[in-house]
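Course assignment 3, question 2. Fill in each field.
Student: A.L.
Task: Predict the tertiary structure for the chain below.
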Amino acid sequence: LYDVYRTNQRVYFHPGDGASDGSNIVEALQEILGCSAEGSKKKKVPKHMLCTVRFLGRVDDEFEVEAIVPPRSKTKSLTDGQGARVIPVAGYLELRQHPTFTARACAGEAIVRRVPHEGPAETTSDGGIDQSESHYDTSHSVGEVEFLEKLRKRAETQGQSLARRLQVLPPMRKIAYVTSSAEKFHEAVKCLAEYQQHITHIPDLKPQFTTRLDPEKIIDCMVRYCYSILGYSCFCDITWLEVEESTNGTTRYFPYTDDDENSFIRSTDAYDLNKSGDLMEKPTTFQVEDNFGKKATLRSLVAYCYSTTDTSSDALLVQLFEGNLEGRIIGEKPEGKLPPPTPIRYRTQSAVETKLWNNIFIPDGYQHPISDLGSSTFCLGARHLPFLELAQNLRNHDAGSVFEVHVTVKTPSNIEDNPITKFAAACENVTKVIDSWNQRIDGQSKDQWSNHTTVKPVLIENDSGETPRQMMTASHHVGTLENVHIAAFRISQELAKRGYEVTRTKIEALMSNKGIPVSDEEALLLSPENYFEFHIKLRLPPGFDHDLLQRLAVENNAHLSQNPMQNMSDGWQKRFVNLRMYSVGKETAVERLNGCIKSLQTNGFQIDRVIREYAVYDSNVALDKGWIDKA
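Answer field:
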């Protein structure tokens, strides 16, 4: 960033080594800003850039260059009050790479006026007179003074923005999930994918209770006890099943142990966890046969305990997040027009003989129990919404407000199969559901945080990897990352209802979003799971040199893929050159991207477009193993 001083339309530069006159400055400005020198016959001048640059001479150790700026009534840039646009500094940032001179400077969106020299004039070694106030017009009207002060403050703000963001941005902290269930831990890691390197799996640390407590009090005591043992932030959960009885209202069934949700404690109000005390109820076998088809609800409480000081237990804070999942117990007879929901084994065995109560509970809108939904379970259980709320609580930034969501489903590996037609129909149905979704989130209706959303089908074929063929959705959303995260899971749930197994949910922010890390220092303060991703779409003729393209991709640490749905009938095809970059800021990422683009263009490849994104959530980056590996 540089100090570039302005007097009316004149700009002053401090010359670097080897600069004998101002011609090189004019040439550099012409090249960088796309403008022409005075008297030049060059006619093509971008409207948003300078119209004319003229070298006026040298004052002491500075070059004086006059920049004539065309007035633009619709520009969003600041003006000097007379219709002339203030010169943007963005173009001058490139001057630091110039070999023959540097610009003297302060940073900002606008160029600041030259500060006149104070004190008596001094004679230079060559007999010339050093700079004095007489060299510059220092008189300003009241409006000009206010305007220049505004420019100065804007410049200071721009120059300090990075430092301010780095100071305000809290570092990601270590956190423990206290549970003896490996399945629940893996579920949490997928929902909290941004923090998977910071989450530690800790076996149960349960306190001994001597009295009955409500679930809310139980989970509060549990998480505080865990914090007292661990000494750092942690969370735990409790999940129970509520079954509606025809005569006695609702009956609660709690798990006897965290990792054995097959043995239940039957209670109509509350329960305790003291297995050796007299107040402990004995485990009750939940007989599926006695509850076929009954309406039920899975309820979950997640408690997060942390300290603002990390030194005193008196400063502990606990947040509770609640999730509910309505459904029914499996039954022998189908309900409504649904087919028989479960395999025969569920009709003859109790929950104790099966694996967890996910085997006996069918969520509303689904045809099978949770355990039959494969890899989709992480986005539809009773704990998923509390985990998403916890993720937002842990998140140290928001990369709003325009995002793209991709939900990948299990795809037939046989390349002869063409599942996209059926999947396109499913996406069309999901679009209708999402558009009619009026559920309120944080007091705001869907229509207040997201416009019409079209869920499109995409089929990607990677050149390598363990899962080269991936079928996914693509949809754009407007809102906070928290709300878009919920919307992404809603799309995942709708696909699971239609028989698709969700293997990945991914959220990408636009490069222009406000929360994108600019510098490498900023990137290191965010999640190490976040990454920049660029897709360079090439338009390739029949018989193109695939070996050359592959070699260039390897040289630029890029990877090839294609969308077979976009191939053209005349033999031309479109392919992607993909780059993924972790732990770097936007500046570094764009520099590497430009290097790859230059390499492709130099070798004659025609670029159709470039897609620039920043992934802020990826539930299963391992799906790309063997194609793009994180290392």
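Instructor remarks: Residues 233 and 306 are 5 Å apart (CA to CA). The mean pLDDT is 70.
Grade: pending
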